[in-house]
TrEMBL record:
<protein>
    <submittedName>
        <fullName>Uncharacterized protein</fullName>
    </submittedName>
</protein>
Length: 382
C-alpha cells in the first residue's frame, strides 16, 4: 500500500478550506513525528525513541495490515471510584467539564421544571478548532450558531486580538453547550503521544509486561485510574509485542463507538436507542451526538428510565456510551526494535539544560522538574 498523501480532518469533516486542510495535515504529521522521536533522553529515561510507531504520510502501510478498534466507557472512572454511590458520581460528573476526562464531554438542557430534554455529547479534539479558527474564523462562528445557539456572537468566541478562546461562554460548562472537548487531558495530541509511548515493549527483571496496570504504571503514559489510558495502552502494546509497526488510522481522532440502551424503558414502549442521533462526522467517524426525544412524542428524556430510575443526569447516559480509536498494525514479526529494560523515569539533573530558565531551578541550583513544558498536543496527565 502507498503512503498516505495527507492526513484528513477528524470525522472527514468538510469545514476546512484548502489552506486549513494543509495546516491540519502538517499538525498531525508533525505531532506523530514528535511522538516517534519521544522525549529528550537527557530529561526522560527509557521512553525514546519509539521505532515501532510510524507516520502514514512518510512510511507505507504493508499489505498484512490489521485495523484494531480500541473502545472504552465514556463515564469518568476517576469520579466513579472516588464517589459514594451512583447519585454522587452522577452529580459530580454533571457538575463540571473538567472532570469529564475520558475523551467525551457533555452538556445538559432542561425545561422550566428541571426535567432533562436534551443531552449533547462531543468527542472533538480542541486542536481541530484551533486550526479552523486560525484559517477560517467565520466558519467557527457559523458552526457554533448551528450547533449551540443562534445567539452566538464572534466576540463571544474570539479575544479582542482575534485569538480563538476554546473555553468561551458557549463551551465551558455542562449547561450552556459543548462544541468540542476542553478538559485539559482530552486532546488529540494526548491520544497520539499515548499510542506512540505504548508501542515500547517493556521487559523488566526478565519479565515482559503485558497487563493494563503494569504497563501504564511502568510507561507512565496516562492515569492508571482512567478507563481510556490503560486500555488504549494495553491494546497498542499487544500489537507491539507481535513485533508489528503501528500507527493510528486516518483520519486520526476520537470517535463515538456506540450507545447501549439495555435496561432502558420509555413511557410509550418505543425504542430508547432511536432518540440517539449522530449530528457531526461521517458514518464511520462520529464526533457529535445528541440524545433528545421529539416534542410530538409527548414525553422527554427525563421521563425515560434506566434500570427503573428516571434520567436525571447526562452522566447516566454516559455510563452507556463507548468511545473508540482505531489503530493500524502491519509488518508483523518484522520489527527489530528492542524492548526497554526499565520503566520510564524523570531523573533529577544538576546541569541546567538548554531552553530552561532560572524558574526551573531551586534556590540551590538543582533542577526541579526535567520534563519540558508540554503544549496541549501532549498534555495527557499522569
Amino acid at each position: 500500500m502507498a503512503t498516505l498523501d495527507a492526513y484528513g480532518p477528524p470525522g472527514n469533516l468538510d469545514d476546512l478550506d484548502d489552506f486549513g486542510r494543509k495546516a491540519w495535515n502538517k499538525f498531525i504529521s508533525d505531532t506523530v513525528d514528535e511522538a516517534i522521536q519521544g522525549p529528550d533522553p537527557r530529561q526522560v529515561l527509557n521512553d525514546s525513541p519509539r521505532p515501532q510507531f510510524y507516520n502514514l504520510t512518510g512510511t507505507d502501510t504493508a499489505s498484512d495490515v490489521q485495523r484494531v478498534s480500541i473502545t472504552w466507557t465514556s463515564f469518568p472512572r476517576i469520579i466513579k471510584i472516588t464517589s459514594v454511590g451512583d447519585l454522587q458520581r452522577w452529580q459530580r460528573a454533571d457538575a463540571s467539564r473538567d472532570v469529564q476526562d475520558e475523551y467525551c464531554e457533555w452538556s445538559v438542557t432542561r425545561d422550566g421544571s428541571g426535567k432533562i430534554t436534551r443531552v449533547t455529547f462531543t468527542c472533538e479534539g480542541p486542536e481541530y478548532w484551533e486550526v479552523l479558527a486560525h484559517t477560517n474564523p467565520d466558519k467557527v462562528v457559523d458552526l457554533y450558531r448551528a450547533f449551540i445557539s443562534p445567539d452566538v456572537r464572534k466576540e463571544d468566541l474570539f479575544s479582542p486580538s482575534g485569538r480563538y478562546q476554546p473555553r468561551n461562554k458557549w463551551n465551558d460548562s455542562t449547561s450552556h453547550g459543548a462544541m468540542h472537548l476542553i478538559q485539559a487531558n482530552n486532546t488529540l495530541g494526548a491520544e497520539i503521544e499515548l499510542a506512540a509511548a505504548a508501542t515500547i515493549r517493556r521487559v523488566v527483571n526478565g519479565q515482559e509486561l503485558s497487563t493494563e496496570q503494569e504497563l501504564v504504571n511502568c510507561s507512565k503514559y496516562g492515569a492508571a485510574e482512567r478507563n481510556s489510558d490503560p486500555h488504549i495502552g494495553a491494546g497498542v502494546n499487544a500489537l507491539a509485542r507481535q513485533r508489528a509497526d503501528i500507527s493510528l488510522a486516518d483520519p486520526v481522532g476520537l470517535y463515538f463507538d456506540d450507545l447501549s440502551t439495555d435496561g432502558w424503558e420509555t413511557p410509550d414502549g418505543s425504542d430508547p436507542r432511536s432518540y440517539w442521533t449522530y449530528v457531526r462526522g461521517d458514518s464511520e467517524h462520529r464526533v457529535r451526538a445528541v440524545y433528545e426525544v421529539p416534542q410530538d412524542k409527548g414525553f422527554a428524556v427525563g421521563d425515560i428510565t434506566i434500570g427503573g430510575r428516571p434520567i436525571e443526569f447526562g452522566a447516566q447516559i454516559a455510563d452507556f456510551i463507548t468511545i473508540r480509536l482505531t489503530g493500524l498494525a502491519c509488518r508483523f514479526d518484522g520489527s527489530t526494535a528492542q524492548p526497554q529494560t526499565a520503566c520510564k523515569e524523570f531523573p533529577a539533573v544538576d546541569v541546567r539544560p538548554e531552553g530552561f530558565g532560572a524558574s526551573a531551578f531551586s534556590t540551590s541550583g538543582r533542577f526541579l522538574d526535567p520534563r519540558p513544558t508540554l503544549s496541549y498536543r501532549s498534555s495527557r496527565a499522569t
